[in-house]
Specification:
The protein is of the alpha/beta class. A hairpin with a 2-residue loop joins strand 4 and strand 5. It is about 20% helix and about 30% strand. The radius of gyration is 19 Å and the shape is globular. The strands form 2 sheets. It has an 8-stranded mixed β-sheet with strand order 8-7-6-9-10-12-11-13, sandwiched between helices. It has one domain: Vaccinia Virus protein VP39 (Rossmann fold, 3-Layer(aba) Sandwich). It has helices spanning about 90-95, 110-125, 140-150, 160-175, 230-240, 255-265; strands at about 5-10, 35, 40-45, 65-75, 80-85, 130-135, 155-160, 195-200, 215-220, 240-250, 270-285, 285-300, 310. Helix 2 packs parallel to helix 3.
């Protein structure tokens, strides 16, 4: 996987954030040092005024600045451009300064599960083409960007971290998607029609009453024991009756959480079938990670629950 980096901008952060649960990630994170300067912008969260190039007049919010960088990520034959914090440690330090020890800074890097699912979507665009897609726990939005590039009619990135959504949506725009809105509904590209990609704040622990989607995707969302039940309850609520859930999860890490999730899907009020489970290998930073790609749909009639198709 090819990664190329460049310093992109600095983002001013607000004093208040929604709570993000601290995660434990075993993957290595490579901190980027000196990088090519693209521009030196400052933008506040939420944005006030901007144009297509991301320029705006920053508000004086009494906040610190966090450096962003541009990372080029090769996913199959497609190059994505990610806008992300330049230093994960700086994100963590920011949370520590504020006494927000329950915050998770690791949304700010791409993870093998997201890359593997994005690759599947780009290889099989019919999964999402012309359909409404929602990503849960989007982070940098890699799977969402892939869905938009594969022809999805509508893509909604959801996360409970506003900065993650802002970075993900800017990444979508930088990756060549022509109609992108921020999570407040202001189009980056000034299209008058409904944007193809937008973002919405969504907390797994809160009841969901809203739009239904044809495809719901989630990458690496089962890493904490206490996340399994909220995720298992939320995903069916997001899904239309004929839709499918695509879930990517590391094969060996917290396997017990994945097994519990699969069992849970069989026993919810409207049971879901594990229609397909495929193990793939994804290389990142010189290491190879095994990823489980799973596809669920609602059980129909007298179908057996838990039938799987296993493929390498």
């Amino acid at each position: 996987m090819l990664l190329r980096h460049g310093l992109l901008s600095r983002i001013a952060l607000p004093r208040s954030f929604v709570v993000v649960t601290k995660a434990v990630r075993p993957y290595s994170i490579r901190t980027v040092g000196a990088a090519r300067a693209v521009n030196e912008l400052q933008f506040s969260h939420p944005p006030s005024r901007e144009d297509f190039n991301g320029r705006l007049l920053p508000e004086k919010l009494g906040t610190e600045l966090l450096a962003l960088q541009e990372q080029r990520l090769q996913v199959g034959s497609q190059e994505l451009v990610l806008v992300e914090p330049a230093d994960v440690d700086a994100v963590m330090d920011m949370y520590i300064k504020r006494g927000q020890m329950d915050r998770d800074p690791y949304w700010s890097r791409p993870w093998p599960s997201a890359v593997a699912l994005a690759k599947l979507i780009l290889q099989q665009p019919s999964i999402v083409s012309g359909r409404r897609v929602c990503e849960v726990g989007a982070g940098l939005g890699i799977a969402s960007i892939a869905a938009a590039l594969a022809g999805a009619k509508e893509v909604v990135m959801t996360d409970r971290e506003p900065l993650a959504l802002q970075c993900a949506l800017r990444s979508a725009s930088a990756s060549g998607i022509g109609s992108v809105a921020d999570f407040q509904g202001t189009s980056f590209t000034k299209h008058s029609s409904r944007p193809q990609v937008r973002g919405e704040l969504l907390d797994w622990t809160q009841p969901y009453v809203g739009q239904k989607f044809d495809v719901v995707v989630a990458c690496d969302v089962l890493y904490e024991d206490f996340s399994v039940e909220p995720v298992g309850e939320l995903l069916p609520q997001l899904l239309s009756s004929s839709g499918c859930v695509l879930l990517a999860d590391p094969s060996e890490r917290t396997r017990h959480n994945r097994e519990y999730f699969v069992d849970m899907m069989q026993t919810i009020r409207r049971p879901m079938l594990l229609e397909e489970c495929r193990r793939v290998d994804e290389e990142m930073d010189g290491k190879v990670y095994s990823i489980e790609l799973m596809r669920f749909r609602f059980k129909e009639g007298s179908e057996s629950v838990g039938v799987k198709t296993l493929r390498r």
